[in-house]
């Protein structure tokens, strides 16, 4: 095969491909860190309303965990599971970006806030209805995942997001699907080279 054809095709694809930098402002807006990536708070450059989360997958190219996360999130659609809106591939620096829902809080920070308040003897009243709602939504999201034969395998308070603003205020979103996988009996590896079982 002629290498000139590949180079021309690569250049044309690179010019046509939408770039994260062209659509979103995210510099200096690091808000978190996942198992395999860094998460930034982003806004559209066109001035339209809304906040987004941009997850930059660490390393160059597409790792097995990125493939796993992208393929699962493209299929999963539930109110209590994080929504993957778009995947950006950069051929220049070989980076992968995931555009996700932005949530202002996670369960870890909520627990930490209440522990700190309790330790300093400040009365922070937690309505039972709020606790029930959070627990119900977490269980509903897990039930949806398990009903679709998906194990999260990294479920912890930092991966349970809570929307703070907008129409989804108070909505729980289960996030960070880097370790998640489909399961069946018997359990099979995802690929010959995949060490995660």
From TrEMBL:
Q: Which InterPro entries match?
A: CDK, Kinase-like_dom_sf, Prot_kinase_dom, Protein_kinase_ATP_BS, Ser/Thr_kinase_AS
**A GO CC annotation given for this chain:** mediator complex
Main localization category: nucleus
Keyword line: ATP-binding, Kinase, Nucleotide-binding, Nucleus, Serine/threonine-protein kinase, Transferase
Instruction: Say if the entry is tagged with keyword Nucleotide-binding.
Output: yes
What residue stretches are annotated with the Protein kinase domain? 25-197
Q: Which reaction does it catalyse?
A: L-threonyl-[protein] + ATP = O-phospho-L-threonyl-[protein] + ADP + H(+); L-seryl-[protein] + ATP = O-phospho-L-seryl-[protein] + ADP + H(+); [DNA-directed RNA polymerase] + ATP = phospho-[DNA-directed RNA polymerase] + ADP + H(+)
One example of the protein's molecular function in GO is: cyclin-dependent protein serine/threonine kinase activity
Q: By its UniProt entry, which PROSITE patterns does this protein fall under?
A: PROTEIN_KINASE_ATP, PROTEIN_KINASE_DOM, PROTEIN_KINASE_ST
Signal sequence interval, chain numbering: none
The name this protein goes by in its record? Protein kinase domain-containing protein
Q: Which species? A: Ramazzottius varieornatus (Water bear)
The organism that produces this protein has a lineage beginning with: Eukaryota, Metazoa, Ecdysozoa, Tardigrada, Eutardigrada
Gene name as annotated: RvY_09249-1
